């Protein structure tokens, strides 16, 4: 995402203080659009004007939630400085990922090192040619050919 639009990479090079908010925005923006996460309702709840009874199993789409215009202004746009950014990439509450602090730290450190050591980094193929890997809980790219 950061290399697909060179202006994003250039903005980070010009202002590395955006690394933390950029990582959060990347997590929000690229939530896996797979099947979703099943959840069991322990109490009756209203969703979109429909009452769902206790005991119902629902599927929660984190990707849809992370693009909700009522929660994120200009949700379809990537904003490297978005703050606050209450995305659901790692779940929330009792269903929150235990490894999220480590994942955030790893992403921030790798991005800081790439910016510092390989400022000329760019995709070696058009972004549209990158092959996605889709799954129920995680996704990504099969390969990311780059040059510098």
Automatic annotation (TrEMBL):
Q: Name one Pfam family in it.
A: p450
Q: Which UniProt keywords apply?
A: Heme, Iron, Metal-binding, Monooxygenase, Oxidoreductase
Report the transmembrane regions from the record. Answer: none
Taxonomically, the superkingdom here is Bacteria
Q: Name one GO molecular function term.
A: oxidoreductase activity, acting on paired donors, with incorporation or reduction of molecular oxygen
What InterPro entries is this protein classified in?
Answer: Cyt_P450, Cyt_P450_B, Cyt_P450_CS, Cyt_P450_sf
Cofactor names from the entry are:
heme
Q: Which SUPFAM superfamilies match?
A: Cytochrome P450
Give the protein family: Belongs to the cytochrome P450 family.
Instruction: Quote the protein name from its UniProt record.
Output: Cytochrome P450
**From which source organism is this entry?**
Planobispora takensis
